[in-house]
Amino acid sequence: MAAPHWRDMRCELCGNDVGYLKPVLIEGTEMQVCPACASYGTPVTKKKRGAARTMTPPKIEPYSGKDVFKDMDKELVDNYGARIREARERQGMSREELGARIGEKTTAVAKMENQELRPSDKKARQLEKTLHITLFQSVEPATVKKRQVRGLTIGDLLKNND
Fold it and tell me: How far is CA 123 from the centre of its chain?
C-alpha cells in the first residue's frame, strides 16, 4: 500500500491539509494534528515494543488428600435446647441473665432453647462453662468402604433396563 499523499493528511483538530502530522495527546485522546494544533496537547512518544510476553498457565496444586472432617470428632447433641433450658432454670437464671453472661440477646437465648437457632461452637462452649453442662457428644468417624472398580458388562445394562 502506498503512503498517503501529503494532501490527503488532514489535522484531526482543525481539519487543515498539512505535509505531516504529529501524534499528540489532547484531553486523554491521542490525535494526529498539524504542528499549529500540537501546542494544545502533549507529544506522544512511541515506545519500542519489547519481546512479547508469553502467558504461563496457572500452577495447579496437586490434591493433598487432606480430610477436612478428621478434626470433627464432636457434634452438638440433639436435645441441646432442653439441656440449656433445664440448666438455666436449675441455676435460677432468667433468659436475660444468661444472655448477659454469654453476650447474646434474650431472643437468641430463647431461640436456642426452642432449637430454632443452633449456637456456634464457640457459643456452645460458653454455654457449657456457664451452665456446667455438656452440649457436645463424641462422634465415631464413618468408614467408607471403597468398592472394587470393574468395567460395565452387558448384564449390568440389561438389569438397568428392566
Answer: 26
Q: Helix, strand, or coil here: 18?
A: coil
Report the distance separating Cα 105 and Cα 99, nearest Å. Answer: 5
Residue ranges of domains in the chain, CATH in brackets: 6-43 (no CATH), 74-138 (1.10.260.40)
Let me know if 131 is exposed, middle or buried by CB neighbors in 10 A (0-12, 13-18, 19+): buried
Look at residues 44, 36, 41 and name the one whose alpha carbon lies nearest to residue 15. 36
- Rg value, the chain, Cα: 38
Tell me what pLDDT residue 28 has: 86
pLDDT tens-place string over residues 71-102: 667 888 999 999 999 999 999 999 999 999 99
- Tell me the three state secondary structure of residue 79: coil
Distance CA 113, CA 160 (A): 49
- Neighbouring residues of 141: CB distance < 8 A, sequence distance ≥ 6: 69, 70, 73
